[in-house]
Specification:
By secondary structure, the protein is an alpha/beta fold. Helices cover about 35% and strands about 15% of the residues. The structure holds S-adenosylmethionine.
């Protein structure tokens, strides 16, 4: 029988644990694997897609630090630690980089210690909070002690916004986060879409919904709106595998995520 860590409900599926299952992790339970498999049935390339999303995290973190001079990150919807984590990629290039991780899933909190191993110069911290309360994240003492909000921040919202329904108004939540960032800050995000393969993605959404989860695929136009008036960096909002790939992907639309990075003027 599976044993639940304290505070973790193993009777309802959780996105962090389903994603961990796709990535080959061990922090998932029968209920998560069942939904994970139902989604794989709908989208046979789901594991590949999760891997492409992770690779984007690495490429974006690398470029934000190496090319854009970002030295502090606010990563909301962090997920269960998966090496290399964002702070590892960033601190390899600039050891003084600081990262504040935020997630609202108790399983991520269980593993938060693994996210807080820092170099001598840099630091990473973890806040258990909900993106639906941006103010509480932005005013959290751990955040204000770790990040200097007068200097550019790398705000990363990677594969989280699809877990918010339109009723949550994720655009206004992201607006509030963007507004709190100084000029020169960067927003990097990915978001699943039905634009490339409506049949598969709609079936996956139906599988998640029937398991009681919120999963919303959004169009390119809807995802673009998250960036507001920030300036899109090259190559713009593109399929995740086409965002500055190390090796050009044979079929960039085989991973059904939009990905983009933008700078605050
Ligand atoms: C699919 S995982 C993505 C993990 C990581 N960002 C990545 O892309 O590799 C989504 C994460 O968002 C978290 N999450 C979902 N809803 C959230 C909310 N309302 N506030 C904070 N985190 C949330 C989940 O717990 C999960 O860890």
């Amino acid at each position: 029988m599976e044993v639940a860590p304290p505070g973790v409900n193993i009777n309802v599926p959780h996105s962090a644990r389903i994603y961990d299952y796709w990535l080959g992790g061990k922090d998932n339970f029968a209920v998560d694997r069942a939904v994970g498999e139902a989604i794989i049935k709908a989208i046979p390339a789901m594991r590949y897609m999760a891997g492409e999303n992770r690779k984007f995290v690495h490429r974006a973190a690398r470029d934000l630090v190496a090319k854009e001079g970002i030295r502090q990150f606010l990563d909301i919807g962090t997920g269960i630690p998966t090496r290399p984590n964002l702070h590892e990629v960033a601190q390899r290039i600039a050891p003084e980089t600081r990262v504040v991780y935020v997630d609202n899933d108790p399983i991520v909190l269980v593993h938060a210690r693994a996210l807080m191993i820092s170099t001598e110069e840099g630091r990473s911290e973890y806040i258990s909070a909900d993106i639906r309360q941006p103010r509480s994240i932005l005013t959290e003492p751990l955040l204000t002690r770790t990040l200097d909000l007068t200097k550019p921040v790398g705000l990363t919202l990677i594969a989280i916004l699809m877990l918010l329904s339109d009723e949550d108004n994720p655009w206004s939540l992201v607006d509030e986060l963007r507004d709190a960032m100084p000029s020169g800050s960067i927003l990097a995000l990915t978001h699943p879409t039905a634009d490339f393969n409506p049949a598969e993605v709609n079936q996956a959404v139906a599988a998640a919904t029937s398991a009681g989860m919120t999963l919303v695929a959004r169009t390119r136009e809807a995802v673009q709106r998250f960036f507001g008036d920030w300036e899109m960096l090259e190559p713009g909002l593109v399929p995740v595998s086409a965002w500055r790939p190390d090796e050009p992907a044979e079929n960039p639309e085989a991973a059904y995520y939009w990905a983009g990075v933008a700078r605050k003027p």
